[in-house]
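FOLDING PROBLEM:
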Amino acid sequence: MTTDIDPELIKDIKPEVIEASRADLMGGLLRAFTWMDQHLQKNLAARGWEALSRTESQIMVYIAQGTRSPVEIARALGLSPQAINQASKPLIKRGLITLEPDPVDGRRKLMCPAESGISIGIDAAEIITGMEQELEKRLGKKQLEVLRSCLADKWGDLPDTPPTKSNG
């Protein structure tokens, strides 16, 4: 989906910059994530699960991948630990996760999947497998393998300094 931009607003911007902004990587990744999350939510609802908010869904993904610390989940999502604490309350109330003492640091709690959390995780895994099969049909097997490989790579720490602005 592209958006037409008022030519008066962009008269001094190079055409290649405008085109790049229409097909940017970040926007594509966000659209892909939204597509995946909406598909997952729709299919979980079809299996009888109550809808999750986007943040709840992201918390469940991190827990399923083994991240249990609310502070680490907050850091990964760019949210405050307090926001994660608030977002986790409905998940706890619905029996999807529990807070357990951290065996290493008794002052901390860890987010763990509860029995229902394991059940929704199994359903989610089946749905995601179906989504990947659909993507393979749409993109082709090789393209999906390349995409999966690129996303699995370690991207490293964030750069210390932003790229320099070109004034050319």
User: Anything to note?
Assistant: Helices lie at 15-22, 25-46, 54-64, 70-77, 81-93, 115-139, 141-152. Residues 115-139 form the longest helix (25 residues).
